[in-house]
Each structure stands twice: as C-alpha cells, then as structure tokens.
Amino acid sequence: MAAGHALPDKVRKGDAKRDRGNRTGFSTGANSAAAAAAATLGLVQGEVPDAVECVLPNMMRVRFAVTDGHVDGDHARAVSVKDAGDDPDATHGAHLTADVCRIPGGGGSVILKGGPGVGVVTRPGLGLDVGGPAINPVPRRNIVDNVRAAGAPILEAGDSLEVTISVPGGEEMAKKTLNARLGILGGISILGTTGIVRPYSTAAFRASVIQAIDVAANQGQTSVVFTTGGRTEKCAMREFPQLDEACFVQMGDFVKAAFTTAVKQGMQHIIVGAMVGKLTKIAQGLSVTHAWREEVDRELIAAAAAEVGAPPDLVAEIRAAETARFAAERLAGLGLAAAFHRALAARAIRSLRQRYPGPHRLTVLACNFEGVPIVTVNEADLTEPTHA
C-alpha cells in the first residue's frame, strides 16, 4: 500500500488540490475474518500463528498480523488490530477479537455470533435479523469462508466451529457512528463490501445515509428530514416534533444519495434543514456539497441579496466575499435574514424539484449558525411553479 502524505500546514478551505493522504486500510469485516481464521488455525495446528493470510471479499489475498493468540483445548482466541489507513475512522485501532470453539459432532457447520462491543440489531429494515449481531452480509460470508478454509480438517471430520466476534471498547466507538439512530445498540457494526477502506472516500458515511432512509421506509415512515449536521438536525427535531426519530437523517454532503434513495423508497414529504452555505450549494444543484468539491456560487448569493432589497454596495461586497456566511450576517444586521433565507430556500426547492422529480412534497428549513430556525419554506407556498 502507498505511504500516507502529511497535510500541508495551511490550505484554503476550497482548495481542490488539498493532499488528504492516500494510504488504504482495512474494514472491520476484514480484520474480523483475519482474527477468526487465525484462531481457527490455532485449533488445527495447536498454536495461533503471528500472521495469517486472508482472502478479502474483493478476492485480494492479504497478510494480517495477529496478536494475543492462545489455544486452550477446544477454544482458541486471536486478535487483529484494525488499521484504517488515512481514513478518519472511529474504529481505527480497534482490536477485532475472535473466539473460536470446536463443537464435536456438530455436523461440519460454521456458526457466527456477536460478542461484547458488536452492536445488536433492534429494528427491522437493515437486512439483518432483529436481535442478532450487526455483522453485515458480505463480511459475514467472508468470515465464514475464511474459517472454512482454515478449519477444513475440523469441519471435514464432522465437527462444527462456533465463531464469536467481539470488540473491546466497541460500545464507546459506536457513539461516534450513526448506529444508535439505526437501531444498532451496544457496539459497532462489522462492515465492508470489499475489505478495503479507501482514505476519505466517505463511502461508509454515504452508505449509512442510504441505510437510514431504508430503515425509515421499512418502518412505514412517509416523511424524511435531511439535515447537514448535528445543529441543523436538532433544529429540525424542534421544528417537527410530530415526526418519529427514524425520520431524521443526517445526510451530510450527500444530497444526491439522500434524494435518490428517498424518491426510490416513495417518501411523500422530503424536508431539508440547512444553514446558508449548504443551502446555497443545494440551490446550485450540487450532488455533493463538500467544500473540497466546489466553491459556493457567490453570484447566486448576490442575486438573492439583491432580490430582498440589499443595497447595491452590499451586494457588490457579497459578490466578492469568500463565504455565504458573510452575506447572512450582514443581511441579518439589516433585518433581512428571513427574507434572504426564504429567497435561497426557494432556489433550493426549484433546483431539487428539477433534479429529483416525483410526487413528493418539498420543504426547506433554514437555520442560523446556532441551530435556531430562521424560516420554513413549503414548496406549495412558492408563487412561481416548481414542477418541471
């Protein structure tokens, strides 16, 4: 794998050339498979190896270091420490631990269980059994496949292998994830469709957004509230107290992923909560609103400011400013905050309607930087038609 690169000391927020490191890492599923295979080899050979070669879901063969291995009769334990590469991952450094027990006369099966630190599924809609461990289907198969390969002599003799994956400290790690919102309690999820974690790809976050919408839909919810972060979510929860917690999804920067999933799931009412910067980017029609992707459209902000009566000299300042926040703060000082955010919200609704057509209703909630509501705009209240 390529070595990581240090970040430059000072980089402008919108600098697309920012070097964010490129060292890949491994998923919790890949490390779980490595630990499980090593413990199984311990039962076969009488000693847990210091390293083990695993086949990942993408069919790559990778050698993993193994720690804390021991064998005690029909039980073996091994640990594989997760290296997330240059990805800012809550589970980086996690000790994926596998306890493998030989069950004489079990019929040659591999039984997979979750132990302490692995979340328990408490709601339907995740494609996992309620009451079972949060081990996703791909890593589940991958763990079993690697255990079958390592434990072939045991399984061929008609004995079974019971594999329990646990993660010391997993409950604390889970607090930095969306697991609780998804109804996964008590620990992290064992994830990974390829086994490889790509730095800053944010693929896991995007996947969790889609998963959260699927969960809401499978629970029979017909409204979904997309927010761009924690403050906007709290703001939206206060504004729409009648909605179930499952309706609230932090989409972050993933506008396209959120909307296409909501439309696909037949959501009837889609609400967006955002502050001025993200609201402007949604109005621009961006699929991903991250600062590294594309800068805010200052012409759009200036036009909205002019529309609500900002003086020409201020409009010129807004057009030259680096951030949307500058406009919001200056216009608030003139008593134009609500009108300005309403103008931006209307533009956002028209953009969203054009990009994501369907029978759903649209609402935009604009919040200030303290997470306090400024204005709520319903598509039906706009004077100009929004349907393409």
UniProtKB/TrEMBL annotation:
Protein name per the record: Cobalt-precorrin-5B C(1)-methyltransferase
Biological processes, Gene Ontology terms: anaerobic cobalamin biosynthetic process; methylation
GO molecular function: cobalt-precorrin-5B C1-methyltransferase activity
Entry's family note: Belongs to the CbiD family.
Entry-linked PANTHER family: COBALT-PRECORRIN-5B C(1)-METHYLTRANSFERASE
InterPro entries linked to this entry: CbiD, CbiD_sf
EC number(s) from the headed UniProt entry: 2.1.1.195
Gene that this polypeptide is encoded by: cbiD
Keyword tags: Cobalamin biosynthesis, Methyltransferase, S-adenosyl-L-methionine, Transferase
HAMAP family, A to Z: CbiD
Chain intervals with Basic and acidic residues compositional bias: 7-22
